[in-house]
């Protein structure tokens, strides 16, 4: 007789091998035929080669034939571009990712592990992850009052570590909530659908509907349920890596500088012509952003929704920053209910992870009209304004053109020291002169013998008054700059802001 424990180790290896087989060859083939990777293939594709350290691999249910059905949630630690992360993914080959094949403690531990080790968390979501099917109730023998065990860790993580959620296939119920409860989420076009309940339940309320019609990317890529839509799983993994590269491992650290080769004194000559003299002409904001940040560093977030606001992450002299801008190609850059919610989300993200904000401002005010009122634009606009005023991270505004009204006032917190510049194209006030002059001088114009001449004379006076140089004379704007000097000045801001960043949790939790 020997004291060796080799038989038990052999049994361990047998069970580990069964776990790696997931739902079996047929289910794996069906997953591949649907154009989707298995959870283990996804983890290998996301993480640095050979770095995955799985936890709870042999958790599952025994089967009558002596085998066992592995739990359909795989998680552990690994490295992503050399940085430690926690990753957890649903196994759709086992009961379609339904909860009745999972062991909830694994999902809970993934969340708690990320929180307590202060590591970024990546969720690979495909399935329900909630109560499972109605058939599960027969095994339980009763119904139950709904609860989300471990949700406290989901909430805690939003204020502690970067959380990325990738919707890689059909996602329903609690799975959909896990996608939304993140700092950054993407879905794969055509392969992923996200909904509170699937087509069979929805069909009970009316006509039959497909998964794509119910919760495809055309819906959630534009309403803000997910941040972005990508074309493939590979794109989703690339986005996760890039997003996390701008953030610290947790709020207890600061975003790291990654020095590059882009000169801080680079001046783009075409910026002097970037803003049309005709105020009614729009222009493209993204080339301007690309011109002033480190080359190739701009990662836009949320391009498909709240489109009059542009949000993204970038670097200035290697320092990570949050970039906010107006897009005059959409509603003239005016603030809508959806763009206001997007701005609030983005400022909260910057505040949570200590990212200085660079705001390239072209804000003509709130979008007006019946539809804007019905959308509660003022309510959400005030929330965006409040987010700006609550933020404590270093903030620099560069006024490119319009700044009007309450929405325009949200370009900065006016009570703080103003690190602010304006281009010569800047135009500001309580409301635009266009349309405002006729209203303000209506009685005078109606009484005039020559209203056209009078209007022209008023316009000449007001054009002189609206000059940004008049505002600078009163020191209501700190500096008017040559647009070509924007990048050097922003790089200077980033370097000055870097030592001002303070690690630690913020006074309120990111809510998503």
TrEMBL record:
Entry keyword annotation includes Transferase: yes
Domain CoA carboxyltransferase N-terminal: 5-259
GO molecular function, one term: propionyl-CoA carboxylase activity
Keyword set, alphabetical order: Transferase
Domain annotation CoA carboxyltransferase C-terminal: ranges: 267-502
Pfam family, one: Carboxyl_trans
Ranges where the record places region Disordered: 1-32
Coiled-coil segments on the chain, per record: none
Organism the protein comes from: Pseudonocardia kunmingensis
Compositionally biased residues, Basic and acidic residues: 10-32
InterPro entries reported for this sequence: AccD/PCCB, AcCoA_carboxyl_beta, ClpP/crotonase-like_dom_sf, COA_CT_C, COA_CT_N
Lineage of producing organism: Bacteria, Bacillati, Actinomycetota, Actinomycetes, Pseudonocardiales
Superkingdom of this protein's organism: Bacteria
Protein's UniProt name: Acetyl-CoA carboxylase carboxyltransferase component
């Amino acid at each position: 007789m020997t004291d060796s424990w080799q038989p038990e180790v052999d049994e361990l290896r047998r069970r580990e091998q069964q776990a790696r087989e997931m739902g079996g060859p047929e289910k794996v083939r069906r997953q591949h035929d649907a154009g989707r990777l298995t959870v283990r293939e996804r983890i290998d594709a996301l993480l640095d080669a050979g770095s995955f350290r799985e936890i709870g691999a042999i958790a599952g249910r025994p089967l009558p034939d002596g085998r066992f059905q592995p739990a359909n949630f795989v998680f552990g630690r690994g490295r992503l571009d050399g940085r430690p992360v926690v990753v957890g993914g649903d196994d759709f080959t086992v009961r379609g990712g339904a909860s009745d094949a999972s062991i909830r403690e694994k999902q809970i531990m993934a969340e708690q592990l990320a929180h307590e080790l202060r590591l970024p968390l990546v969720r690979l979501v495909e399935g329900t992850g909630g109560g499972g099917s109605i058939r599960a109730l027969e095994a339980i023998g009763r119904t139950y009052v709904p609860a989300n065990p471990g949700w406290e860790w989901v909430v805690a993580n939003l204020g502690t570590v970067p959380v990325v959620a990738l919707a890689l296939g059909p996602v329903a119920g609690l799975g959909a909530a896990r996608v939304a409860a993140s700092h950054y989420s993407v879905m794969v076009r055509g392969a992923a659908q996200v909904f509170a309940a699937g087509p069979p339940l929805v069909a009970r309320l009316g006509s039959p509907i497909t998964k794509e019609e119910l919760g495809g990317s055309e819906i959630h890529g534009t309403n803000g349920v997910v941040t972005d839509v990508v074309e493939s799983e590979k794109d989703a993994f690339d986005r996760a890596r890039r997003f996390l590269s701008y953030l610290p491992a947790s709020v207890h650290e600061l975003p790291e500088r990654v020095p590059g080769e882009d000169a801080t004194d680079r001046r783009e000559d075409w910026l002097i012509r970037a803003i049309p003299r005709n105020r009614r002409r729009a222009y493209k904001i993204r080339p301007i952003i690309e011109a002033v940040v480190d080359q190739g560093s701009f990662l836009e977030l949320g391009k498909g929704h709240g489109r009059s606001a542009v949000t993204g992450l970038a670097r200035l002299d290697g320092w990570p920053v949050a970039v906010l801008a107006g897009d005059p190609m959409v509603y003239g850059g005016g603030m809508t209910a959806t763009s206001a919610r997007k701005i609030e989300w983005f400022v909260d993200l910057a505040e949570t992870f200590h990212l200085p904000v660079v705001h390239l401002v072209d804000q003509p005010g709130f979008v007006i009209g019946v539809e804007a009122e019905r959308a509660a634009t003022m309510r959400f606009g005030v929330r965006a304004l409040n987010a700006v005023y609550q933020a404590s991270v270093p903030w620099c505004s560069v006024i490119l053109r319009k700044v009007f009204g309450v929405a325009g006032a949200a370009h900065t917190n006016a009570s703080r020291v103003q690190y602010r510049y304006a281009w010569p194209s800047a135009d500001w006030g309580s409301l635009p002169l266009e349309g405002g002059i006729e209203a303000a001088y209506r009685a005078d114009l109606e009484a005039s013998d020559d209203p056209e001449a009078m209007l022209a004379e008023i316009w000449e006076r007001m054009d002189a008054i609206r000059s940004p140089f008049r505002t600078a004379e009163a020191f209501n704007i700190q500096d008017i700059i040559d647009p070509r000097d924007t990048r050097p000045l922003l790089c200077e801001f980033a370097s000055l802001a870097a030592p001002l960043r303070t690690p630690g949790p913020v006074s309120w939790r990111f809510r998503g």
